[in-house]
Amino acid sequence: MKKFIILHWSEASHGIGVGIGFLNFYMLYYSWSVSWEISFTVAFVLGFLASIALGHYVGNEFDKQEAEKISEAVEWFENKPRG
Questions:
Q1: DSSP conformation class of 8
Q2: CA 68 to CA 81: how far, in whole Å?
């Protein structure tokens, strides 16, 4: 399951960003009575930034894991007994 989530992380990070945006909009507009234009703008920007931050962090982790797998495969191939 972890591998599936990491492979499709860009969609998941966008979904989390949208969720953060909706929560921010709800809090600003309904709870704090800020105008909907300001609420929408702030929520959109915060959701977008959260999505980019999550995508960047997990993208770096995924690239690191892929590099380690490639290194292990090359090392195994080089050390493979020839017969």
A1: T
A2: 22
